[in-house]
Every structure is written in structure tokens, then in C-alpha cells.
Design a protein that fits this description.
heterotrimer, A alpha+beta, B alpha+beta, C alpha+beta, A: alpha+beta, 12 helices, B: alpha+beta, 5 helices, about 30% helix, about 15% strand
């Protein structure tokens, strides 16, 4: 399957990259390429210009900054999964990075690329010929969503592994735009719109991920439920974070909604409680209410909802067991 | 618009006329005649197209040829020194770790990348890192045995 | 039978292993010819429709496009791998019958332009009602997929042995169950490909094709292109796996040839992975009902077996598949009274074809599952019930099979022991269990018209041996096994052997790789050819040594009188002497072999022996079921395996290990998911077959028998071991969680639903008891 034609630009700096993106509005950033290039072969994404930001130096780093952790956008997932500091202090993130795709994907793929991945749907992630059996879907540039058979709406799901892990750490992201940069909570990056999953202004590039100091020493974990133990996207992924000092908890899920989801009702329920068998059992039931997955994958929504609770249980068990060792 | 780029492949510099939308796999096979790197799915889901980029395992079917400029690229043809076989290659042969042989170049290069970063992986770690390489013939068992046997040979340069 | 063997029975690496690890082994897509063009196939996006009009004009005008072809341009000749079942055109004429059906093809100077050109072909379809379920398709009033085929049932077979109704009446217990086995894709790593070249001077077409059946491909291309067979040469390069999916002609073969002839340039077609999932072949989904009558002690008296195979849009191997499915119910158990009925029904879906086991995995799943259920209900141990019903070597067989060697009972005992049957069955905690299943497979089916192999062995002056065989090595090591057999017979080393294979222009006839017939059939032919060459040399040496040719032995590159190793010549001396005596060089031996049959029979009409020999095996599985996620983990699979005397134990292990993981995929992971005729998961990402991390522990136990028909006592080792993993796993799941699953695959969702259902019932019972 050949890639469509495109112009290829090599910026020397973020500013240059931003200018290129603003100059050619349909341009896309190329990082590891493991998501975008596949979509381009499928002709669901056809940017006329690719701006290769791998050529920008100094975006591959893991820094400690007064207790906070700053990770450069182009840090490979492999590096994140192995950095001793991250494995120790931010295990959910290390775990998530180690579970993305396969060894090759973790070598080629970057943390920002994984965060900013395109949403997925069984009617969308298919070749051009395959999709010609139906009218083009809304996300791919047509009018209708085949999941719900309605117009002007998109029911694709966000399926990235690292997002929930970063969400439970209250991560923030730095977005560099034309002449300015802003810092927002990661949660605000995700629009909840299946067709355009990211809230980026024209030409903006995610350049850094910040995990605040107050998070960077919690008990955390990410569990992934997929068909196989490698290569696959999650059917459901669950991340969990608990404070070491107080009974404060955070929970997030992926592959169950149009964006990665913080389980705020769950968190409210668990707040102040011990993670006893009883409270966890109750939490598991609540977990499945934190999202309403739809039939846009090969796995049923009911199964996904059931697994949300199971995965949360497992994430907690593993995390607390690890922290006792 | 095609451009002339230089790619360093198996130790040699090659000047090539390449379009942005050419993948490294296409350039290796179609322009350089290096057929050892295989196209199994063209979408990065099987590992048959594995090459080494600066010693690490990459999926050449979802990598732009232009992105490989300035890197050290090793394909299966470049693994052995001179007329000798690489220890992984010998182990695969002698232990029956291949049948149809289509996944084999990718398997061997991935194993090489793994052993480069960790000379003595545990069997569990080896399986995890090889799990992006699919095989339909062998059931994987002899591949694991062959690679582990190379790790166990202390004093062997891998 | 010689007991001391030097080459046969040893763990020789594959002859082409070095090429494969170096990346120099040439598969079809690795071949490049000067001026080569590239082709792509346009496929139907609708499941059932009339083709009203095809407009190729825009495609033809695209710079770089050299040709476009569609069904209206090609001869009206149908093809099919089974002559009586030909129902397919290389490119659809008049109508398309499934999403993925071949409609047109383009040829261009590079694949990128060819891909672009496909998008410029416009086809006007008039959609017709489609049917996706074989049970629906077989009813009155269902859409007609092929004219003249009533009830969309292209083949139906019914056969009875003994008197089933009478026997059922004498049974203590009769059980009836229904089963379903899903569509599975072979998913070989190497995509289907073909490269064709035509010489206009002598009118000769050469096609390099990733195929399992070079000689059948020749026949099909000859018929469809209307070229004499002698003008069509098929050469098989290295093939990257087939498992049955490359047993057929495909559009890529025909179109490559077509364009090569019409454009005067070599033309290559390579399929995308998606095309392989959708438009090649898959294992037939099957609905099966089995009724089995037993005595109190578990002895099977009668069986009634009904199968409906979902054939998809075309026949492919239909009649053979459905016959095999039914026929081999007679092994490994003795079924004195049997009725089977099998039908192959068309649907507007991807086409079913031969896949490792070829109809038997589905039947085996049903029968082995039911046997476990029966054992459980009547209180007999599942291992015991299998031993009790085992057929035996030399015993008369209800269908007339000749069973010379049979290690089945021994395989049951050994597999059960190795898995820890006594300690574990029924005794492990909830969620853990063991199960087993038996199987048997013919080493090639001998009574399907004329199925024979030929071989030629040449001895040159230098002691190197050339073997010409038509056998199609697709990665299983056929050439290596044949090389070993010849080396053993000639008393040379494996390094002295060079095998030239599967080139219809050079090598003798061979039907190809299917039905596990290669080792026995092509191996025996090679052995006879080696013996024939050897006799000529022995005649000469006998005279020289003033001995009897019958007393000579060839071993370690020597020829000597049996018992007097010093009274002999080296092979080099013998060959030199032969040449200097002006004897015709090279020394050529030829042989051909067809399985012995008492009378000519056909698979569909007669009784009689259907295979030269049969392999037997039992597989025992240990599983762990995660009660929360429903995920079944196969912890260990033991295979106790009677393949006679393995020619190459390392290659046999490879077959077995691959089979186990393939069978596990069939049981737990794989399913071609189709929505309204469209395959929803046509990728390696979404059709998730097992990776390194799904690997179970695999143990192989040899059960030695020494078959009189197989070369050096060998029997098949490629397919039998893929029959029993799935039922062994599902039987183990029953032991683990007490639920009988009647379909494949058993996914986590199904397990959880069944567990919830079970709990509901138990709660109900509990509440009643209060």
C-alpha cells in the first residue's frame, strides 16, 4: 500500500515548524510516524505537507525540575518505559509506555505522538477500497457516522495508552504556537470530538509534558486489556494514582470514549476511603458508568464496561502490592 | 518532488533519488535490490520489514526513506561479517528456528537489536521484545531457544 | 527395514536455511526481470451484484498505465482446483458474488501508478439481494448465487456404513449435540504473488508463483488462457507459508500471465495483506450436528454426522473438503455404524478453501468435544473412553481403511501422563483444568483420480547428487526430507545433495503440497529413483568386486559388500571407474509412486483404503481461565505423536509446534468477522493470531511405529497435529469452569457470559432450596 504524495519539510526549530504549519493549514506533524503513516496508507488522513519535527533537536529529554518532571515531546516511548526514575516515581507512565504496540513501536514512537494519536473506529481504520463499500464516513471527510447511522457526528474512540497514565498524574502540556506558548492541563488537550480529537490552535505543537511535583511521588499503575499481549490497541486501559500522604485517588480510562476519561465520580466516591475489598468492589461497579462505549470496535460495549471495573481493581492491586515491596 | 539523498546502508553510502512518500522498505527493495527485508503487511503490524537503525529495531514499511538520512542502516544482508555467519544466523539454522523463512530476517534483526541493548535477557523479556514479529509456521518455540542459546554463549561477540 | 540410519532420522537443518537467514532466499516478490511491469486487481465493494458496465477509459489514460483488463476481455473459461467443481472466472463476468471478488486489473510501470489507476476505473453495479448465512442460503427462495445450483448447495455427500438406526436402537445412551466452527484465515507471512513472462517466438509462458500446486496451476492457466500445457511453465520460488491458502489459481496468476502475453513485458502482481484476508481463501465455517450412540461402558456403536459448510462465493476445494470432513470420522476411533451427510453451501462471502486439516479440524472439534461430554455424562474417564474406542493396526476397519500402524492408544496414555491427567483432571481449583483430544490424519489421500509423484536422481562424476522432484516446499522442509531420503539410500552425506524442485518445465509431475502427502508420496518416489540410480552403479561395482549386487551396501560415500567393509570402493572410485568404463553418465535413476489401492475408487463413491498410511496423535492441554476477564491462557500443550519414523525429527517438531500455536489461535484468538458480507478485520492488527507472548509450553512425545508403506517408515506430520489442539483446549476449559462450549472461538466475552449464566442458574437453585 503506497503512501499518497506529499511535500516534506524539515524545520530546524519549533518556531520554524510552527510557521510551516501556519503557512500550510492542512499540514501535519510527523514524529514517529507509526500512527500517521498507517492512516495515510489507508487514505483517511491525506495531509499535503508533512512537517518532520524529529529534525528538531532537544525535544528528547526527561528532566527533574524541583520535584516536577518535564518530558520532551519527542522522547521515545522506549526511553520512558526504562528510565529508572520514571519506573520508580511514575510507574503508571513507565507501564503504559512499555505496553504501547510492540518493541518496534516503542522504539520509533514518541510520547507526544502517542498522546496525539488519531482516534479509531472499525469503519475508519480501513483502506480506501474497503471504505468504498459505504459512503465516506464523517471523520474521513464524508457526512455520515456508520456507528450510529447519523450525519455530522463521529463516534470514534481515543485509544492511546499513555494518556490515562498522564491524566491521573494531573499532567500538563506545553503548546507552542505562533510567537507564544501556553501551558494547559492535559485533560484540556482532548476535545471530546471524534472527528477532531485535539484542541490545538492553528500551528500549535505540543513540545513538553509536565508532571507536577505533588503528583510525582504517588502510587500509580496502568493496566491494559487487549486481545493479545503485543501489537494491539487497548480494548480498555485503566490508570490509577494514589497519594502517599492522604486518601486521595485519581482514575482514568482509555478506549471507552471519544477522549481519555478521568473517572471523577469514582474519584469522589473513593476520596477519603481505604481501598478495602468492599470499597473496591463498589468502585468497580461505578467504574463501568464512567463512560458509555459504543460499537465502533470488534469488542462489545458491554464487555468494555465490564472490563473497566476489573482493570481498575487490577491496577489498584498491583500498585498497592508494588508499593508494599 | 524527488530529491537526491544519501543513505548509509550496511556500511556503504548510497546516493538515491527518492520522493517523500517512498518508505525505507520500498527504497531498499525497489531501488537497491536488497530483497532480504520483507513486506508482510506494509502497515507495521508483523515485523517482517525490520531493519536496524543505529542498532535499534525499526519497521521500515512505516518509515520514510528520507527519515533514514544520517543514520546507520543495517539490513539482514549486512549482518554477517564477510563470508561468516552471524551467531544468530548459525543458531537459527542449527536449531530449526525457521521454516518458510519469510519472517526470519526480521526475527534475526530484532533479536540482534535486543541483544545489543541487553546481552542476557530473560526468556520473558526476550519474548516480550520479539512479540512484534509474527510467525505463522514455527510456533515461536525454536526461535526463542535459538536466541537464548546465543545469549548463553558467554564470550561470544554478538 | 534398515535399523541403522545415517541421514534419515537425524536433525538436519533445512537445505536452504542459510539462504533464508541471510535474506538471499528468493520469494516471488524478490524476483525482478528487466522491464518488469506491476499489476493490481480491482475488487467488488458489493456482496452480490450484476456488472452493468465497466469504464476503464480514465485508467487507461493515466500516464504509466500499460494495460487494463476485465472479465469481458478474457476467455469464457472457468477454473477450479477440483475439475468437477470449476465455477470461477479469473475476473468476474456478468456478476460479482462477494465483497472482494476480482473485477478488473491494471498494469503499470510502477505499483504506485497501478494503485492510482484502480481508483480511475468506474464500475456500474446493479445490486442483488445477498445472503450471508449458509442455513439461510440453503432455503427455498434464497438469492441464487450461481445459476443452476439449487438451494445454493453446490455439493452434497451422504454415505452410510453399517446400519445406524439399528445400532442406535441397541445403544444404552444416545447423545446429540450441535457445534459451530468459525472462519479462520491462514495468514501466511508471505503475500500471494505471481511474476509472468512470455516468449512470443516459441509461445512459451513462464510464471513464477507463490503456490503450493505448480502442476495444477499449470493446468488451470493453460485452460483459462487457452494455451497448451506444454507452453506453460510454472516455477515455484521460495514460498513463505501457505497452509492451504495457496492451493488454487488466483487473479494474480491469470492477470500477470495475461498482461505478459499482451504487453510483451514481464508482469508482477503482489497482493496486499487486506486482499489476502478477503479475496484468497479461508477455513470453511461449519455447522455440525453429531448424534452418537454408546454402550454403558463408552463403546461407540453408531454415529450420525451432519455438516453444513459455509463455502463463500465459490467452490474452490468444495467436494474434496466436504468429503474429507466426513470420511475421516472413521479414524482414530472405531465407528462400526456411521452415516454422514455433508453439504457445501454458497454465501456471498469470502471463499472457503483448503486449510491445514481441510474440513477435518471442524469435524474433529465436534466429535472430540462430544466424546468428552459423553464421557462426563456416563461417568467414564475421557482418556479411557478414547483408548477403549481406538482402532488398531491390522484390525478390519468398518470403511475398509488399511491401518498398518497405529500408535493411537499409546498416544492417549502418553499425553495423559505427561499432562498429569490423574492428578489434575477434575481435581484442580476453579479456573484451572486439563483436557485432551485425539486425532488422526491420512498421509495424502490416494483415491482422488490420479495422484502420483515422480522423481529423478542423477549421479555425476564428482559424487554430487542431483534430485529432481516436483514436490512443492512451502517451508515445511519437503526438499530437505527428500534430500535426506535420497542421501540415505545412496549412502552419501546430506551436503552432497542438490534438490531442484517444483518447476513444471524441468521436474517430474507432483500434485503439490496438500493433504500431507508429500513425505510419503514424493519421498517414496525419490527413494525409488535413488534405488534405480544405485542399482546401475551397483551392477558395475558388483562386477568389479566379483560380488553379487544384492550383497552390496552404500554408506558413508562407500560401496562395499555387506559385512566386509574393506571389500569395497569409495563412491568416487566407483563413479570414476564407471565413467572410464565408458558407461553413460550421468547415472540417472527415476521413480514414481502412487499410494497402493486395491481398486480404483473415488472419494465420493466407494469404500476402500484412502491413504497409504495414517498418523495418530493425542493432545493434552492445561489451561487457566481468568474468571474476571474471561481470558483463557493455554499454559501447556502436550502432543504425543505417531508419525511412524520421522525422517527429520527437528522438522517434525517444527510442524507440531506450529500446529499447536495455530490450533490455539483457532480455539481462542482468531475469527474472520464479517458484517453484511464485509470482512471487518482484514489486517494483522485486527485479526489477532498469536504472538510470542501467547506461546504455551509445548512438549512433544514421540510414539514410534514403523510403517511399511512410508519411506523409511514415515507417516505425515503436518496436519494431524492441527486437528486436536482446539478441542483439547475447549475440553480443558470444561474441566476448569464446568461449562461446555460448543463453538469456536471461545472468546473472553463468551466465557464471561457463560459464567454469568451459570451463576444465575446456581443462584436460582440455591434460592429454591430455601
Amino acid at each position: 500500500m503506497r503512501l499518497p504524495k506529499f511535500d516534506y519539510l524539515l524545520p530546524g526549530s519549533i518556531a520554524e515548524a510552527v510557521a510551516m504549519l501556519q503557512d500550510r493549514p492542512a499540514a501535519k506533524i510527523l514524529a514517529g510516524g507509526t500512527d500517521l503513516l498507517v492512516n495515510m496508507k489507508h487514505r483517511v488522513e491525506m495531509p499535503p505537507v508533512l512537517v518532520n519535527i524529529k529534525s528538531i533537536s532537544d525535544l528528547d529529554y526527561i528532566h527533574r525540575d524541583n520535584g516536577a518532571v518535564r518530558i520532551g515531546a519527542l522522547t521515545p516511548l522506549k526511553r520512558i518505559s526504562r528510565a529508572p526514575f520514571i519506573a520508580e516515581k511514575l510507574p503508571a507512565l513507565a507501564r503504559a509506555a512499555s505496553l504501547v504496540g510492540s518493541f518496534h513501536h516503542q522504539t520509533m514512537g514518541t510520547i507526544a505522538g502517542n498522546l496525539c494519536q488519531q482516534n479509531r473506529c472499525k469503519y475508519y481504520n480501513q483502506s480506501q477500497w474497503w471504505r468504498s463499500a459505504r459512503p465516506t464516513c464523517y471523520k474521513a471527510g464524508g457526512e455520515i457516522c456508520h456507528v450510529v447511522n447519523k450525519k455530522e457526528t463521529c463516534y470514534s474512540s481515543y485509544c492511546g495508552d499513555s494518556a490515562p497514565a498522564l491524566l491521573v498524574m494531573n499532567a500538563r502540556v506545553v503548546l507552542q504556537g505562533g510567537g507564544s506558548s501556553r501551558e494547559i492541563p492535559l485533560e484540556e488537550l482532548f476535545s471530546g470530538d471524534g472527528k477532531s480529537p485535539l484542541n490545538l490552535r492553528k500551528g500549535e505543537i505540543l513540545s513538553e509534558i509536565i508532571i507536577p511535583a505533588e503528583t510525582a511521588d504517588g502510587v500509580s499503575n496502568y493496566t491494559k486489556y487487549a486481545n493479545r499481549e503485543s501489537i494491539d490497541f487497548p480494548i480498555v486501559g485503566a490508570a490509577f494514582w494514589a497519594s502517599r500522604e492522604k486518601k486521595e485517588y485519581r482514575v482514568a480510562f482509555t478506549a471507552v470514549a471519544k477522549n481519555p476519561v478521568r473517572g471523577r465520580r469514582l474519584e469522589a466516591f473513593l476520596d477519603g476511603k481505604d481501598l478495602s475489598k468492599a470499597s473496591m468492589a463498589e468502585a468497580s461497579k461505578l467504574a463501568s458508568k464512567e463512560a458509555a462505549p459504543v460499537k465502533n470496535s470488534l469488542f462489545s460495549p458491554a464487555h468494555k464496561r465490564e472490563m473497566m471495573g476489573i482493570l481498575l481493581q487490577r491496577a489498584v492491586n498491583e500498585a498497592t502490592r508494588r508499593s508494599c515491596e | 518532488m524527488k530529491e537526491v539523498i544519501e543513505l548509509n546502508i550496511n556500511g556503504d553510502a548510497h546516493e538515491l533519488l527518492v520522493a517523500p512518500n517512498h518508505t525505507l522498505l520500498e527504497v531498499l527493495r525497489d531501488q537497491l535490490g536488497l530483497m532480504g527485508t520483507k513486506r508482510g503487511c506494509d502497515l507495521g503490524a508483523c515485523g517482517a520489514c525490520t531493519v536496524l537503525i543505529n542498532g535499534e529495531a525499526y519497521l521500515s514499511c512505516i518509515m520514510l526513506a528520507m527519515d533514514a538520512v544520517g543514520k546507520e542502516i543495517i539490513t539482514i544482508e549486512g549482518l554477517a561479517e564477510g563470508g561468516d555467519l552471524h551467531p544468530l544466523q548459525s543458531a537459527f539454522i542449527n536449531q530449526g528456528a525457521l521454516q518458510c523463512g519469510f519472517c526470519t530476517p526480521g526475527m534475526i534483526l530484532t533479536a540482534e537489536a535486543i541483544l545489543t541493548e541487553d546481552e542476557h535477557p530473560t526468556e520473558g523479556m526476550l519474548k516480550k521484545k520479539m512479540a512484534g514479529n509474527l510467525c505463522r509456521c514455527t510456533g515461536y518455540k525454536k526461535i526463542v531457544e535459538a536466541v537464548m542459546s546465543v545469549c548463553d554463549n558467554t564470550g561470544e561477540e554478538v | 527395514m534398515e535399523k541403522e540410519l545415517n541421514v534419515v532420522g537425524t536433525r538436519v537443518p533445512m537445505l536452504d536455511a542459510a539462504q533464508k537467514v541471510k535474506g538471499t532466499a528468493l520469494f516471488t516478490d524478490d524476483l525482478v526481470l528487466s522491464g518488469m511491469l506491476h499489476g493490481k486487481v480491482l475488487r467488488s465493494p458489493v456482496p452480490h451484484a450484476k456488472i452493468l458496465h465497466i469504464d476503464t477509459s480514465r485508467a487507461e489514460k493515466l500516464p504509466g498505465v500499460k494495460g487494463v483488463v476485465s472479465g469481458r476481455d478474457i476467455p469464457d473459461r472457468m477454473y477450479g482446483i477440483v475439475p468437477m467443481a470449476k465455477d470461477e472466472h479469473a475476473l468476474a463476468r456478468e456478476k460479482v458474488r462477494y465483497i472482494g471478488d476480482d473485477v478488473a486489473a491494471v498494469c503499470a510501470i510502477d505499483p504506485e501508478i497501478a494503485e492510482e489507476a484502480l481508483g480511475l476505473i468506474t464500475v456500474d453495479y446493479e445490486e442483488l439481494p445477498a445472503v450471508f448465512d449458509p442455513l439461510e442460503a440453503a432455503k427455498e427462495g434464497a438469492p441464487v448465487i450461481h445459476e443452476g445450483v439449487k438451494n445454493n448447495t453446490s455439493f452434497f455427500i451422504k454415505k452410510e456404513f453399517g446400519d445406524v438406526e439399528k445400532a442406535l436402537a441397541e445403544c444404552d445412551d444416545v447423545f446429540e449435540h450441535s457445534f459451530y466452527s468459525q472462519a479462520v484465515n491462514h495468514a501466511p507471512l508471505e503475500p500471494h504473488a505471481a511474476l509472468a513472462q512470455y516468449d512470443p517466438l516459441n509461445g512459451q509462458l513462464t510464471v513464477w508463483s507463490s503456490t503450493q500446486i505448480p502442476f495444477f496451476l499449470r493446468r488451470n492457466l493453460s485452460n483459462t488462457l487457452q494455451l497448451a500445457e506444454s507452453k506453460v511453465r510454472i516455477i515455484k520460488p521460495k514460498v513463505g507459508g501457505g497452509f492451504g491458502q495457496k492451493i488454487d489459481m488466483f487473479a494474480k496468476d491469470f492477470c500477470a500471465a495475461w498482461f505478459a502475453i499482451h504487453l510483451g513485458k514481464p508482469v508482477k502482481f503482489v497482493y496486499e495483506r487486506e486482499e489476502i484476508f478477503i479475496s484468497t481463501r479461508q477455513r470453511h465455517p461449519m455447522y455440525i450436528t453429531v448424534k452418537t450412540g454408546v454402550k454403558k461402558d463408552g463403546t461407540i456403536l453408531a454415529q450420525k454426522f451432519q455438516a453444513v459448510a459455509d463455502g463463500g462465493a465459490y467452490n474452490s476445494t468444495a467436494p474434496t473438503m466436504i468429503a474429507l470432513s466426513c470420511f475421516f470420522l472413521m479414524i482414530p476411533y472405531r465407528v462400526p455404524n456411521l452415516i454422514y451427510e455433508g453439504s457445501h453451501v454458497y454465501t456471498n462471502k469470502p471463499v472457503g478453501g483448503a486449510m491445514r486439516g481441510h474440513g477435518i479440524p471442524q469435524a474433529r472439534f465436534a466429535v472430540e468435544r462430544q466424546l468428552d461430554i459423553i464421557a462426563d455424562r456416563i461417568g467414564v474417564d475421557p482418556a479411557e473412553i478414547r483408548i477403549k474406542n481406538s482402532i488398531h493396526a491390522g484390525a478390519p476397519h468398518p470403511a475398509g481403511f488399511v491401518i498398518n500402524t497405529c500408535g493411537f492408544s499409546e498416544s492417549v496414555k502418553k499425553a495423559a501422563d505427561a499432562i498429569g491427567w490423574q492428578e489434575k483432571r477434575g481435581k484442580l481449583p476453579l479456573g484451572k483444568g486439563v483436557g485432551l483430544a485425539g486425532a488422526s490424519f491420512p498421509s495424502g489421500v490416494s483415491n482422488m483420480s490420479h495422484i502420483s509423484s515422480g522423481a529423478v536422481v542423477q549421479l555425476g562424476r564428482d559424487g554430487a547428487v542431483n534430485v529432481l522432484t516436483g514436490a512443492a516446499d512451502i517451508g515445511q522442509g519437503a526438499e530437505t526430507v527428500i534430500g535426506q531420503i535420497v542421501a540415505e539410500e545412496l549412502g552419501v552425506l546430506i551436503e552432497d545433495i542438490r534438490v531442484t524442485a517444483a518447476d513444471t518445465g524441468i521436474t517430474p509431475l507432483d500434485p503439490g503440497t496438500f493433504g500431507s502427502g508429500v513425505t510419503v508420496r514424493a519421498g517414496n518416489a525419490a527413494r525409488l529413483a535413488a534405488i534405480s540410480a544405485k542399482q546401475k552403479l551397483f551392477q558395475f561395482v558388483a562386477e568389479k568386486l566379483e560380488a553379487n549386487a544384492a550383497d552390496l551396501v552404500a554408506k558413508d560415500r562407500q560401496i562395499f559388500v555387506k559385512g566386509s567393509p574393506d571389500k569395497g570402493l569409495t563412491l568416487a572410485q566407483a563413479l570414476k571407474g564407471y565413467q572410464y568404463a565408458d558407461m553413460p553418465m550421468p547415472i540417472v535413476g527415476r521413480g514414481s509412486w502412487m499410494a497402493p489401492a486395491s481398486e480404483p475408487t473415488t472419494l465420493f463413491k466407494e469404500d476402500g483404503n484412502f491413504a497409504p498410511n495414517y498418523s495418530f496423535m493425542t493432545q493434552a492441554a492445561e489451561v487457566e481461565v481468568d474468571l474476571h476477564t474471561g481470558r483463557v491462557k493455554l499454559l501447556k500443550m502436550v502432543t504425543a505423536h505417531d508419525c511412524g519414523r520421522p525422517i527429520n525429527p527437528m522438522l517434525v517438531e517444527g510442524q507440531l509446534e506450529g500446529s499447536v500455536v495455530g490450533g490455539m489461535g483457532q480455539a481462542l484468538y482468531e475469527d474472520v468477522i464479517v458484517e453484511k458480507g464485509q470482512v471487518m478485520n482484514p489486517s494483522f492488527l485486527d485479526y489477532g493470531f498469536p504472538t510470542f507472548l501467547e506461546m504455551p509450553e509445548i512438549e512433544a512425545i514421540e510414539v514410534k511405529t514403523d510403517d511399511p508403506i512410508g519411506p523409511f517408515g514415515a507417516k505425515e506430520a503436518g496436519e494431524g497435529t492441527q486437528l486436536s489442539p482446539a478441542p483439547a483446549i475447549v475440553n480443558a476449559v470444561y474441566d476448569a469452569i464446568g461449562i461446555d462450549f460448543m463453538e469456536l472461538p471461545i472468546t473472553p466475552e463468551k466465557i464471561l457470559a457463560a459464567l454469568a449464566e451459570k451463576k444465575k442458574k446456581e443462584d436460582k437453585v440455591q434460592s429454591f432450596s430455601h
